């Protein structure tokens, strides 16, 4: 008996190790451990042995069964891994291969600028956040310290959604098309624990339409919540952002005291432009080289304690700054377009002229607007 076991062991383990495929391995398993398998048969002989004999043979047969079980398992994983590797290799797609023929259109300047913003702010440690365009009155106004009676509500030319009953829970009942990206500040503070560093680009809506206003437009919001945040952090961040965005080191900022219900103090930020070859160019110090002036680019300020409180945070512990900026306006200033309405006309000639190649991704090393 012992002999038989010894003779079985090596060839069996070798056969398992060499099994070329999963079905061959399964055949070996059935032949050895299956109902009629050789090892199963051996185990059955234990019952007929004398106790002394069983004490000697038992551990040997069980030992063989364990060795075979283990070897089968090891070979099975190896074969499965090899099958997976082969499949991954055969189904591989080289995404870096240049695409031939066909046209993929161009990237709209608004999408391009959103990509540039994400790239610039990612480098500063900001994540991208989003929120719904159909927003509640509470997120769009109330939580931002704009109560019902506040004149700022009238200023926003809000599109209210019809058919929604007033009353009930203010947070869920009354809906508007968001008039700015600032409600994403609220959603982010309610969702995440500080420290927070996000930008939130997206569509916004106001009932307004002329050469510089469209009912739908784009904004990007910025929000930082942390301990010990000051106006200095805000100024540095905006300066760094605008220099990277306009790809010039000589960007000059002017912060003007302003008012937003959700920031205190608040500042509107202008960038200087100069005249080069009869054209307005962002950058340089206005007035110094005769000519030029200031362009308003964004609104900003230190997050109002009431806003921090509305989001369930303690304003004595957490401070922050926020800013909001028109993306369409940024695109117009950087790429020299003059009529905002053309952004949304869908005119293929305009897109061909101002659009960006779909495979040129903005990078800080290559130049975000390259
Ligand atoms: N939400 C303001 C607007 O739409 C801009 C802003 C954002 C101002 C954040 C201050 C802070 O005009």
TrEMBL record:
This protein's record includes keyword Metal-binding: yes
Gene3D superfamilies documented for this protein: Bira Bifunctional Protein, Domain 2 (3.30.930.10)
Domain Aminoacyl-transfer RNA synthetases class-II family profile, first and last residues per copy: 111-333
Major location category of this protein: cytoplasm
Catalytic reaction equation(s): tRNA(Phe) + L-phenylalanine + ATP = L-phenylalanyl-tRNA(Phe) + AMP + diphosphate + H(+)
Compartments where found: Cytoplasm
Gene Ontology terms describing biological process: phenylalanyl-tRNA aminoacylation
Pfam families xref list: Phe_tRNA-synt_N, tRNA-synt_2d
Cofactors (names): Mg(2+)
NCBIfam families xref list: pheS
Subunit: Tetramer of two alpha and two beta subunits.
HAMAP family registered for this protein in UniProt: Phe_tRNA_synth_alpha1 (MF_00281)
Name of the protein described by the UniProt record: Phenylalanine--tRNA ligase alpha subunit
């Amino acid at each position: 008996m012992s002999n038989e076991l010894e003779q079985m062991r090596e060839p069996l383990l070798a056969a398992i190790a060499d099994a070329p495929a999963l079905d061959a391995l399964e055949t070996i398993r059935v032949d050895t451990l299956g109902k009629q398998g050789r090892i199963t048969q051996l185990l059955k002989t234990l019952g007929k042995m004398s106790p002394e004999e069983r004490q000697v043979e038992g551990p040997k047969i069980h030992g063989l069964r364990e060795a075979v079980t283990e070897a089968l398992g090891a070979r099975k994983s190896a074969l499965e891994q090899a099958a997976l590797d082969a499949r991954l290799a055969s189904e591989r797609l080289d995404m870096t291969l240049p695409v031939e023929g066909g046209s993929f259109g161009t990237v709209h300047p608004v999408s391009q600028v959103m990509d540039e913003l994400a790239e610039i702010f990612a480098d500063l440690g900001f994540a991208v956040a989003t929120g719904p365009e159909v927003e509640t009155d509470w997120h769009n106004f109330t939580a931002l310290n704009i109560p019902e009676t506040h004149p700022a509500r009238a200023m926003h030319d809000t599109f209210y959604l019809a058919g929604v009953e007033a009353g009930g829970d203010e947070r869920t009942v009354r809906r508007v098309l968001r008039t700015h990206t600032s409600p994403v500040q609220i959603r982010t503070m309610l969702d995440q624990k500080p420290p927070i560093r996000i930008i939130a680009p997206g569509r916004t809506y106001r009932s307004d339409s002329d050469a510089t206003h469209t009912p739908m437009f784009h904004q990007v919001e910025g929000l930082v919540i942390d301990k010990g945040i000051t106006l200095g952090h805000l100024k540095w961040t905006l300066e760094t952002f605008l220099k990277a965005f306009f790809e010039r080191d000589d960007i000059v900022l002017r912060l003007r005291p302003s008012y937003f219900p959700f920031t205190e103090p608040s500042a509107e930020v202008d960038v200087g432009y100069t005249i080069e070859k009869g054209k307005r160019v962002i950058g340089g110090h206005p007035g110094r080289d005769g000519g030029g002036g200031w362009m308003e680019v964004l609104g900003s300020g230190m997050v109002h304690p009431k806003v921090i409180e509305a989001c369930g945070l303690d304003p004595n512990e957490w401070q922050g700054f926020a800013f909001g900026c028109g993306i369409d306006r940024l695109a117009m200033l950087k790429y020299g377009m003059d009529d905002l309405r053309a952004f949304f006309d869908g005119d293929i000639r305009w897109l061909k002229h101002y659009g960006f190649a779909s495979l040129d991704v903005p990078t800080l090393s290559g130049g975000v607007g390259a």
